[in-house]
Predict the 3D structure of the following.
Amino acid sequence: MRTTTGWRATSPTTLRRTSLERRDLRPDDLAVRVEHCGVCHSDLHALDQRVDAPLVPGHEFTGVVTETGPEVTAFTVGDRVAVGNIVDSCGACAMCAAGQENFCHSFPTLTYGGTDRRDGSTTLGAFSREYVVRDRFAYPLPSGLDPAAAAPLMCAGVTVWEPLRSLGVGPGSRVAVAGLGGLGHLAVKMAVALGATTTVISRTQEKRDDALRLGAHEFLDSTDTRQMAATRDTFDVVIDTVSASHDLAPYLKVVAMDGTLSLLGHLGPVTVEAMDLLVGRKKLSSAGSGGRRSTAEMLQFCADNGIAADVEVLPSAQVETALDRLRRNDVRYRFVLDMSDLD
């Protein structure tokens, strides 16, 4: 086994610096020195649901290859790489064959809190100085991307990228992004870069200037019934990134005929009136993470278009501060931990 240092949860709000074990490299493994790791709302959910199992969060990170297994040909020591929230899949089911490892029929192996497919151990995340990962699930980090600002692309970025691409967003498309947080701000940047006329929908008027700075063409106050009514049947795609449970009806009303509301933020139970779908042949969909092909495509698109997350970088020793502020939505728009203080 290999030994590294990281932050293990002892309660939903407490993480302790401790020694962690990583597996010895398998033939197709990389050892990655983790440089930057994003802090995601999913980390909060995992911490809140933690039981007695060991938990080391962190599933969107960038770093440098320090060692490779003997069968690895795509990476060499010194390469900059990015890793997301999926580190393995069965590789044999229809979804894996289609390049959608995120929908693997036997469920993908998650970066933390998952079950290793070969030895049955629980995966420990990237709030640590080293991570060992199968080479197929590491991605070359394009030279045009800042490693800290690129880390959130590996979860938040690909989560909004997949529906934008699968729903055909491009020049002439009318897109609305509901919620302007970690997911939403990247959805705005990507939709604009794809050529869509893009509107931000938010109940927070203070975010108007930010929405326009990010490239949005319009801002829509969701609490203003007249504004919402005036945009009924307008948007081909509404990307809903609101993380709390909420009423979908107002967002379905602004979807155009044959358009789609893609629910990405809140993944719990929802209630939908069939008439809100029937009138206009509207569709309700969702998405999560991304397959290997889509993730690589997303990284290159972001490099080509100068897209990265708006981040606040903190030393990893301030991980509890980052989590506390994230619970209070006190970040614009993503915390990233600098792991160099774990040396």
Notes: The mean pLDDT is 96. The CA atoms of residues 46 and 309 lie 22 Å apart. The first strand starts at residue 2 and ends at 11. The longest helix spans residues 292-305.
